[in-house]
Amino acid sequence: MLFIDIIIVLSAILSSLWILLESFYYTRDKPPVPRTDGPRYKASIVVAIKNEDPEVVKGLVENLSRLDYPDYEVILVSDDSEQDFERLRQIELPEKFKLVRRDVPQGRKAGALNYGVSLSTGEILVFLDAEARVDPTILTRISAHLSQAEAMALRLRVRDPKNKLQVLYSEITEFSMDSLFRGRYLKGLPVFPNGSAFAIRSSTLKRIGGWREGMVAEDLEIGMRLFLNGVKVGYADDVVVETLAPYTWKDLFQQMKRWAYGSGQLFPYSLSLLRRGMSGIEGAIYANQWGIYPAYFVMLLIAGIVSPVFSSSLLSWVLSLTLFLISSLVFSWRSRTREYDLRIPALMISAFLTGYLLGLLNAKFSWKVTPKVEREQGLWIPLESNIISYLFLLSGILALKSYLVQGTILLAISLILLIIP
């Protein structure tokens, strides 16, 4: 049936286009670095904390206490239970530090950040996560950047990767910084900041209404809102915030699922970007990348299920699969990946598909903090991945009755999804 063939090919073009765009954005060129001998604004560092290991928070305090900057403060906002908060209170805080607890933790992470901002007195605001570690000169560099821009995305870098998963995650993060942040910034495209490494003038944040509470991807939302309000977010490639990679495949799955949920939840809002011309269209694609990645596979799944009633041609399957594989090979070549594991794309398909769908439906979502301490994998049965795998198995069996190649492709996808640990 021609309609099914067209949808299959279009979904492959959509998924492949974003993969190719990521490859195209990648660059080794570095943006200019502003001089650091200009004005130095008072800085407030705000960190939202929930279910964090006290040793992780203690390490953050020790790291930030060594900042070489004349005027700054650190506000740690805890959404922990009273018992866990008492453990945090055992940490010795320097004079410039403040640890507070919200009695009513509403609005998710964005609510905690807004609470911290309400207590701040700085002209510039820096938002970090508990596992962040920074250079002593970071505020000097941020102050220089914010003398030229109203908001800045900072460079993330994974520190001390130990196992293969963490090495893979580190390489993915490096490529993402060089492509989706550095590359897009140099091409004049809208930069959507990562909430783990973000700086903004306090006056600008106040003008746009602060963080939007209740959002799972509060950083993506504020990035879109800044763009819609005409605020150009810069990218500070020289300002590095070190972070940690997930230790286990389960942790990575939950983190990717959360990213995808946040994107799906913001889908209606992302459509407002379309009225801002080509940059807005590209921004909307960026904002929905977690749904775009698995779009092709979703269409293949549907095509297999409806195959007893609606036929699809072998040509459309071969053409679309070839296009997707070529784009994936180009991405692999451009990203200069040294480590590779088939579990990564399999994990992405399952996590992005389930997370994005739940976000679109605005289903109930439980925020799970990615653990920052080393621990054993333990027994993990990825329910979502298995369900999707069995759906592809069913789809393949249905397609095999009339279409050998199409059914075989679907069965192969089913098996690949089962390799996730």
Describe this structure in words.
The chain is α/β, with parallel strands linked by helices. It contains 17 helices and eight strands. Strands 3-2-1-4-7-6-8-5 form an eight-stranded mixed β-sheet, with helices on both faces. The longest helix has 24 residues, at 2-25. It is a multi-pass membrane protein. Its main location: membrane. The chain crosses the membrane at residues 6-26, 285-308, 314-333, 345-367, 387-420.
Short description:
It is built from 17 helices and eight strands.
Biggest sheet: strand arrangement? 3-2-1-4-7-6-8-5
Q: Please give the number of β-strands.
A: 8
Mean pLDDT: 90
List the uncertain runs.
none
Transmembrane segments: 6-26, 285-308, 314-333, 345-367, 387-420
Membrane topology: Multi-pass membrane protein
GO molecular function: glycosyltransferase activity
Pfam families: Glyco_tranf_2_3
Write out key terms for the chains shown.
17 helices, eight-stranded mixed β-sheet, alpha/beta, 8 strands, 421 residues, Spore Coat Polysaccharide Biosynthesis Protein SpsA, Chain A
Write the SSE topology:
Blueprint: H1 2-25, E1 43-49, H2 54-64, E2 72-78, H3 82-88, E3 97-101, H4 108-119, E4 124-128, E5 133-134, H5 138-146, E6 151-158, H6 164-186, E7 197-201, H7 202-207, H8 218-228, E8 233-243, H9 249-265, H10 267-270, H11 277-287, H12 289-292, H13 295-305, H14 314-335, H15 343-360, H16 383-400, H17 404-417
Parallel strand pairs: 1-2, 1-4, 2-3, 6-8
Antiparallel strand pairs: 4-7, 5-8, 6-7
